[in-house]
Amino acid sequence: MPSTASQHHGSRASRGGGINPRPGELSLAHGGVLFLDELTEFPRAILDQLRQPLEEGVLWISRARLRCSFPCRVTLVAATNPCPCGWHGDPSNRCRCSELQRQRYWNRLSGPFLDRLDLQCRLEPVPTSQLRRCFKTAEEPTETPRKSSFSPKAIQAARIKMCQRNPGKQLNSQLSALELGRYGQIAERAFQCWEQVVSKRQLSMRSSLRLLRVARTIADLDAVPTVGEQHLAEAICFRSYDHAPRANS
Questions:
Q1: What's the pLDDT tens digit per position in 200-241?
Q2: Which of 186, 162, 187, 157 is nearest to 172 (CA)?
Q3: Which residues, 6 or more positions from 207, have their beta carbon under 8 angstroms from its beta carbon?
Q4: The overall pTM is greater than 0.70
Q5: How far is CA 25 from CA 56, 76, 181, in A?
Q6: pLDDT digits (tens, 9 = 90+) for 156-189
Q7: Are 194 and 232 in contact (CB under 8 A)?
Q8: CB of 59 within 8 A of CB of 69?
Q9: Which fold has domain 152-242?
Q10: Contact between residue 40 and residue 81 where contact means Cβ atoms under 8 Å apart
Q11: Strand 33-36 relative to strand 75-78: parallel, antiparallel, unpaired?
Q12: Which of 126, 113, 101 lies closest to 241 in space, CA to CA?
């Protein structure tokens, strides 16, 4: 069964290891979710050690006489504050952090690490009037969830069966650039918009490909065979931290 693991920034057990190598939180969450809270409080060196395993889905550990591997294909979820005090961007203007302090704060995350986060979005404070709608009184009946008439995963699986080069792939996130172009069914206008965004934001090749994969998934959620400009625009909204002050090395 898929597992879920949560790790605090004070822990260094992500990768695992030891004299007799044992799996860490990253491998224990294989097939599930790994949640990293207070992401910017993790030592940058530890986060950068996760780059290769997150990219390949396999963690390699080498010792003097042995080299072993642990599977670690996870859905990485992370959360952090927008600045040291946590109030930057709040309508109340309570933030007292200087621009330099925010720059140093975001420089704790390397550009290559952020490239591996497909969805990056800022959560705004929820007004109490809107929050009230989330609660139900005892008298109010709970809504019966509607059954979905389609499965985005089934749509992905049907498409990816055409990828004869690697039939073991099952998700859009595993498609290569060649497979995205051949099987992704991306409209020409969407491609043109994508090229403009990549050029304007100066996205890396990794980030630009992930943007297309997210747009392809959004189209699948809409049960639409072709990726259009609207799907790409929505995917761009999930890259809100591409402009956050940070180092790119």
A1: 888 888 888 899 999 999 999 998 889 999 999 999 988 766
A2: 157
A3: 115, 239, 242
A4: no
A5: 16, 11, 35
A6: 777 767 665 555 566 888 888 888 888 888 999 9
A7: yes
A8: yes
A9: Helicase, Ruva Protein; domain 3 (1.10.8)
A10: yes
A11: parallel
A12: 113
Listed by start position, the domains of the chain span: 4-120, 152-242
Contacts of 191 (CB under 8 A, 6+ apart): none
- Count Cα atoms within 13 angstroms, Cβ side, for 14: 26
* Strand-by-strand arrangement of the 4-7 sheet: 4-7, 33-36, 75-78
How far is residue 101's CA from residue 104's CA, in Å, rounded to a whole number?
A: 5
CATH architecture of 4-120: 3-Layer(aba) Sandwich (3.40)
Is 190 in a helix, a strand, or coil? helix
CB 176 within 8 A of CB 205: no
Nearest-CA neighbor of 189 among 227, 144, 221, 245?
227
